[in-house]
Structure formats: structure tokens, C-alpha cells
Amino acid sequence: MDIITPQLLYHGTTSGTVDSFRSKLLDSQYWKPGKDFGEGFYTTISIAQARKWAHKGAKESWDGSKPCVLVVELKSVPPGITPLLFLSDSHGWAGFVYQHRKASVKGHDPCAAHPEIIIGPMADNDTGKIVQKGIQLNKDEDWFYEQITTSRKGRKLDSLQLGNQVVFCSEIWEPALVFVGCHIYTGGRWIYEDARSYNQTQHV
Question: Does 155 reside within a domain?
Fold first, then answer.
């Protein structure tokens, strides 16, 4: 399967991390277990989704950093890469998410060989609570699937409502990614800073 490049992707973070990302986008020592697709650098094709991630990260930040969205260009694909692609929510997708959400120790992955890149829907925002309940009640993957694809009001969510994520799970992708710039939320608006000319800003 071919991935057509270049492609623009977005990563929600905080302004305090920008200097680090300028020098290196993929640093596995900072990747945390217990996420949908395991440890990795999480991006999305939706800038709106990335902005939600950024606001969430800023609320949890201890240093007062502002919400920030990195703009990242995927300029090429390393040879021999086979992506794991979930076109929509499915029981296979839910099982993959459930197993990786339950992983709590860094470096211990439920996959025999974890894919270098994974593309697919996000799980629901309440996934953490659902996973804990599933563990306590010894629930299976079918139960988990129903829980994460149903809204709080009991309505079925489709894949577009869940959101999209593109996750780079290996530092082998570092040469293929370019830090293009970032949007920083300042004074009630998003301000864009281009990586090639940080002394210039434009309102978006």
C-alpha cells in the first residue's frame, strides 16, 4: 500500500514544547504507554482535532504553556514500511485499542511486532474511564467496542464523529517529517509562526 506524499499533518501540544520539536520531532523517550495505538507521535489530518488536543494539553500543563498545534509535513515514506490501516471503527480496531489502552508499562507492547505507522479512528474521549471499568469487571473486546462507539446519550457514533489519528510509532520516520510551523493560541486567537521565519507571524 502506497502513501502519497507530501501530506500535511497536525499535532496538538503546548507552546513549551516547540523548541524541542524544532530540533527533533520523534523522540521515543517521551512517548507514553496506554494510548489508543500504543506509544508514538500522534498526529491528525484535522487541525480542529489538533486544537482540541492542544487545549487539553494546556489545561494539564504545569508551566502555564499555551495551546499549540504543530504543522508537520510528511515528505516521504521509508522503504519497506507497511502501515496498519483501520478504515473505520470495527471490532478489530476496538480490540487493538483495548489491548494498547491496558498497557501501562513503557516498552511493554501487546503486539509481537508493533507497526511503524498506524492510521485510524480515535476512541471516544471517555475511553480511559471505560478501560478501567472493563478491567474491573473483566469485560471483553465486544463490550469495549460498544462502549467507545456510543455517545453519552446512547447514540451510535460514526468514524467521522470519533476523529482521525495518524501515529508514528518508530523514530525511523524522523527523516521523512518536516516541522513546517506552529499555531499558538494567544489572546483568544490562533497565531501562526512559520518555521523558516520565526520573526514573522500572521493571524489565522
Answer: yes
Give the pLDDT confidence of 102-114 residue by residue, as tens digits: 999 999 999 999 9
How many other CB atoms sit within 10 Å of the CB of residue 133?
Answer: 14
140: CB partners within 8 A, 6+ apart: none
Residues forming beta bridges with residue 41, ordered by sequence position? 168
Q: Is the overall model pTM greater than 0.85, yes or no?
A: yes
The per-residue pLDDT for range 87-96, each reduced to its tens digit, is 999 999 999 9
pLDDT one-digit tens code per residue, 39-85: 999 999 999 999 999 999 999 988 889 999 999 999 999 998 989 99
Asked if residue 2 belongs to a domain, the reply is no
Residue 41: inside a domain, yes or no?
yes
Total of domains in the chain: 1
Burial class (CB in 10 A: 0-12, 13-18, 19+), 157: middle
Residue 1 located in a structural domain: no
Q: What is the CA radius of gyration of the chain?
A: 17
**Containing structural domain, residue 97:** 7-203
**Is the Cβ–Cβ distance between 14 and 68 less than 8 Å?**
yes
C-beta atoms surrounding 117 within 10 Å: 24
